[in-house]
Design a protein that fits this description.
By secondary structure, the protein is an alpha+beta fold. Helix content is 18%, strand content 37%.
Length: 179
Amino acid sequence: MALTHSISAIYVLVLLLSVVVSASASGGYGSDHIPEKSEPKEQEKLLSTTLGIQGIIYCKSGSKLIPLEGAVARVTCLANDDHGFERAPFSILSDATDDKGYFFATLSPREVQENWRLKECRAFLEVSPSETCNVPTDMNQGINGALLNLYRPLTEKKMKLFSVGPFCFADDKSISNDY
């Protein structure tokens, strides 16, 4: 199961990388124009970069935010094929959060269909392990999806690291529309 999550995470990172390329070529995420073909050298450079997505997931109980161990986030991406047609969205799941609520997902170039370009990727709350704190909230777009658009390059790891959240599940008593 961990291997499946790792493979899925690598796939999303590759797709995210294509989004970065597509965004810079089109002037922004979500552009509806047909992407142009990249120079081979540019594609080789992009395909050697992994995308990482990190964040923290909390449980909101009353006024307290408690790190939620074992929670999972989902990263969903749209992509255009080599003819500029939008493809069905695909998703990867993060590894389960640690005892500090931290999650991490990766997407490598091997996970993206050849000649596809990422158009837009978003991170969402997916699963809470808690029976009492399992209601997703839209804090930092945890329900609607936090757009992955800013990254920090990690040159030594050949990775572009995106940060989202923090996201939050709530117990029934803590739910509010303040997010």
